[in-house]
């Protein structure tokens, strides 16, 4: 149901708070159900729960829906929204009788309009769905009147009880042999990768070399091989990364902590530009970032500015620097505020996230803000939520220690080769999942021994042999397939 709430949020963002769940929007249609009907068809083609057997595509659709939700919400609030490009997967109509394989089609959607209806129609058009048209008689007067439309209640149109369910015992038993075979087949490649990683780390004194765990092993190896082809050319530049990370990700840029990210799908010429241009300015960027962070910390009398521990994505250095500069300037103009004059913040943490929406307290008890938030809103929020932030941080630290200990216990007792988790899942849920595994170790120990295990949201068998289970796995009595 969490996914359901995320998807339904797009519709809710288009509504005001009145009790009849309707909205006043300047929409180009004279039929209240037009927008709702159109969005309903869109949801029923891309809803993540329709892709439970395709974890990668399901995750893509889930993330894309969240981005689209935020974009449409911003337009509804008359905010400036930067252009975004997302991908949705849909199932192609079957051309053969079962058990023919299901074919999936990707659809790229670019939203760059400040008009709500235009953006909705862009989504519909990209998925070859009927767009919401403007009746001729309404076009002349569309700006003089308001149109009501109703919220789409997805629950009424889709029977989620029909989604197939499978027990953890059935899934593990069916996939463990394949996982061991895949891991064995890739062992030589893993050894080759390990040698390349150690070579690069030692040569440039890097703290780590990282890549997305959903990638295939050959893809990571290809990135390392490409880097090694040009490493002599970039030797002097890469020496400046000593003590920092090298990340293979989605973009090529200098990151906010001085680490380097290289886009896995970018050609070497893109890497060359970042390494030979942006990386050479790393010290200058880091110096300015430190200066503005210090200024903000002094405004709050000693607050600690840190990356949220549950956030793995670092933004570009120049983006982060821009937000620091703007925040520092705005706080300096508000030195009469209670947050500066009468409050001490030495035991609090501040997370500056350029991609956040409104001021908030994260699950780890950090205050989360960005430069586009109204300064007074930020300061008032922080003053009014000191107790909540403090209690949340203490609870998080306790949960983090419990999580660390129980993960270690699970890895040892099941004799796992590796154990990883999805950092976005609540620590209390990870702890619950691990405890349930330990309670059933007599059943699972022989199955999981010497395997790679990951706790995530769905079942999956990774291309490196990792067995992924959902944190809320169930036993056989709920099984439907």
Automatic annotation (TrEMBL):
Coiled-coil segments on the chain, per record: none
Domain of life (superkingdom): Eukaryota
The protein's name: DUF4460 domain-containing protein
GO CC terms: mitochondrion
Alphabetical list of InterPro entries matching this protein: DUF4460 (IPR028031), DUF4461 (IPR027989), TCAIM (IPR027986)
UniProt organism field: Adineta ricciae (Rotifer)
A Pfam family assignment: DUF4461
PANTHER family for this protein: T-CELL ACTIVATION INHIBITOR, MITOCHONDRIAL
Domain DUF4461: 168-474
Domain DUF4460: 33-128
